[in-house]
Amino acid sequence: MKALVLSGGAGTRLRPITHTSAKQLVPVANKPVLFYGLEAIAAAGITEVGIVVGETAAEIEEAVGDGSKFGLEVTYIPQERPLGLAHAVLIARDFLADDDFVMYLGDNFVVGGINSLVDAFRVSRPDAQILLTHVPDPRSFGVAELDPAGQVIGLEEKPEHPKSDLALVGVYLFTPAIHEAVRAIRPSWRGELEITHALQHLIDSRADVRSTVIEGYWKDTGNVGDMLEVNRTVLESMERRIDGEVDDRSETVGRIVVEEGARIVNSRIVGPVAIGSGTVISDSYVGPYTSVAENCRITDSELEFSIVLRDSSIDGVGRIESSLIGRHVEVTPAAGVPSAHRLVLGDHSKVQIRS
Predict the structure, then answer these.
(1) Is 48:2 a contact under the CB 8 Å cutoff?
(2) According to a count of CB atoms within 10 Å of the terminal CB, is the N or C end of the chain lower?
(3) What is the pTM of this model?
(4) pLDDT, tens digit (0-9, with 9 covering 90-100), for 217-228
């Protein structure tokens, strides 16, 4: 069995972060989201992985390498532009050959891994196995319709009037039957080859398409709110570990990870919190559900329920919360005119200011 990991999307909902970084490499608890998926695939006993890449291919390849650090053998599959999940299957035909495979969206996060799902699929081998979960607003997802017996009878992509609240989770399991289906469909109104259309083709052809409703935690980390929520979930599962330096004037409370080379000076850290190597936090408060990546500087500030990416600094700005701060960012007080804000913002930025 092989795995096909999709990492070619543009990440428009995470701009401006994704103007300069692949969305799959935005870190959760200081580890890229993509890595959690690759670890789950390796844990399920799958070693051959094809990663579909787009305009951020160089960054993905630099981060993942040949896959050996995950116990995987990685093949990169270029996709000229994002043309749908079924298109990714289409262009991966040579890599997939006639093997069964799991397709895993690189920006999705599934707590608990996929071991049991892969094991069950290997035994029963339906033509396709989809994962579903209940969501409050299914209009942003592929949506499944089930009959009273729980059999999949219909699938729609981002419907205006959903027939259920069951959204497709970004993990799919297929036999080679899917290849004929992706060749048979036509682009949707979005100009994409939709995997929901390919699955519907299988259903209409009386293929064996099964579903599993998962009750565990799943998130599509496509926006800032979901990134912060996944970060919270992962941090809650950490064990306390202090490998860096914490001086006598500092206080650390709860589940905290301080990596080697990090320093905490005259500060209060209340977990769960993850602090990367080379980061210095001084005269500050860092509160729950916060991850600060490597080589950052937090000085005379308060930070809570936030993600700070590497090589950034926050100095003397009071309190920051519910924020995603990118790489090489400087956050400082405005000088001069009282009660004034001075901003330099990229395209698609979102700022909330309390005057």
Answers:
(1) yes
(2) C
(3) 0.86
(4) 666 666 778 888
